[in-house]
Amino acid sequence: MSITPSLSRRLDGLQSSAIRDLLKLTERPEVIGLAGGLPDEQLMPRDRIALAAEAALADRSRLQYTQSAGWGPLREVLATRESVRLRRAVPIEEVFVTHGSQQALSLLGEVLLDPGALVVVEDPAYVGALQVFRAAGARIVAVPLDAEGMRTDALSELLERGERPAVVHTVSNFHNPRGVTMSPGRRRELAYLADRYGFWVIEDDPYGELWFDNPSPEPVAIYSPNVIRLSSASKILAPSLRAGWMVAPNAVCRGVELLKQGADLCGSALTQQITAELLADTDWLGAHVDKIRRIYGERAGALVGAIRERFGDRVVSSEAGGGMFVWAEFADGTDTAELLPRAVDHGVAYVPGSAFAVSTDYRTAMRLCFTTSEAPVLREAVDRLACAIDA
User: Fold this and answer.
1) Strand ranges, E, within the chain
2) Domain ranges for the chain
């Protein structure tokens, strides 16, 4: 008889992403998918990417390995972009390129956290962050969100009670899943608390450039050296480029570099070269992102308008000022997890709020993604949802 080897105890209690699992169930072509957090592939600049790829492939030396911290010219482009955002000269040593911003978050979980360390997250929370922090063996405590983002007063109360987080994680712009943006005042308060109590803030910002009417506020990272800023090209260019980055103090970057060398040596020099060319072409990029903002803004308005017209006071939805998501809550106690199978049978899918829950169950809430469907389809999706409820 053979003895089956065991797996690591770090897998105990970990669960697959409920959203990824849900997408497998809702891939039928007749289902209008509002569940996935996907950018619209029809808006991805395929032809411009092809030109940049052709230019990169003209030099065989560019098919080699690159630095663990990322291809030098891309880091230079990113340092220039981030210097504008942060209103200071960002040295290239503080810019680190990763395989999407999710890898940056994962590596930071290993660099910043010991088992049992306290991590504060927002509630509802970004699922990818919860997976990282649970895998790191962290103790997770949630603070609530409202229309102005993270409740920094609740965080302050937690700190005054003696809790000492190693990390506070925030999706500061157009929150996933809640859709809200942290106000400038709360950004300054979060930075002040980070300096006073000595914790790291991970400012996760993949959606900040997708504003519709008003630009996103200045990053939290402007106000404190204890803020690590993450971003990505996935939402404005293409997810398949897998180009994410972080801006962090040199010591953090060097710690991440040590772990990345053990994980994958380096990222793709080819896709990083493509990304560098596209991000450096500022005139083209500005027009491209403006187009995305305009189209996503129209779709967001159509979805929110349809929800309010069809459901009235029965559903309270977030304002969609940017990003990719609308958060809607039933005021009549409708359980969205119980409703989901019936909704799929009626040809529409969403993510129940419970998938993002930490301290509150959010059983009457749902996250809706508006990016991949045009306005008439979004209105049809709301009609199908209403039919599912009536059924």
Assistant:
1) 32-33, 95-99, 118-123, 139-146, 149-150, 167-170, 200-204, 227-232, 243-247, 315-317, 325-330, 348-349, 351-352, 365-369
2) 13-43+286-390, 59-280
Q: Report the distance separating Cα 355 and Cα 15, nearest Å.
A: 11
Q: List the one residue out of 193, 245, 198, 197 whose CA is nearest residue 220.
A: 193
How far does the chain reach from its first CA to its final CA, in angstroms? 55
Could you check whether 13-43+286-390 and 59-280 share the same CATH topology? no
Show the tokens assigned to 62. 């560019």
CA–CA dist 12, 200 (Å, integer): 26
Q: Do residues 322 and 205 lie in contact, with contact meaning Cβ atoms separated by under 8 Å?
A: no
Cα–Cα distance for residue pair 190/181, rounded to 1 Å = 14
Q: Which two tokens stand for residue 146?
A: 């409202």
Length of the chain: 391
Of 325, 327, 319, 328, the C-alpha closest to 213 is 319
Q: How far apart are the C-alpha atoms of 285 and 230, rounded to whole Å?
A: 20
What kind of fold does domain 59-280 have according to CATH? Answer: Aspartate Aminotransferase; domain 2 (3.40.640)
Q: Is the pTM of this model over 0.85?
A: yes
Condensed to tens digits (0 to 9), the pLDDT of residues 27-39 reads 678 899 999 899 9
- Record the tokens describing residue 120, joined without a space: 């504060």
CB half-sphere exposure, 25, CA atoms < 13 A: 16
Report the distance separating Cα 156 and Cα 37, nearest Å: 31
CA-CA distances (angstroms) from residue 281 to 73, 284, 285?
Answer: 13, 6, 6
pLDDT surpasses 70 at 140: yes
**Pairing mode of beta strands 95-99, 243-247:** antiparallel
Collapsed DSSP state (helix, strand, coil) of residue 126 = coil
Looking at this protein, which amino acid is placed at residue 100? G
Q: What is the arithmetic mean of pLDDT over 87-97?
A: 98
Distance CA 189, CA 324 (A): 26
**CA dihedral sign of residues 363, 369, 373, 377:** positive
Q: What dotted CATH number matches 13-43+286-390?
A: 3.90.1150.10
Token pair in block for residue 289:
């992102």
How much of the chain is in helix, strand and coil states, percent to nearest 5? 50, 15, 35
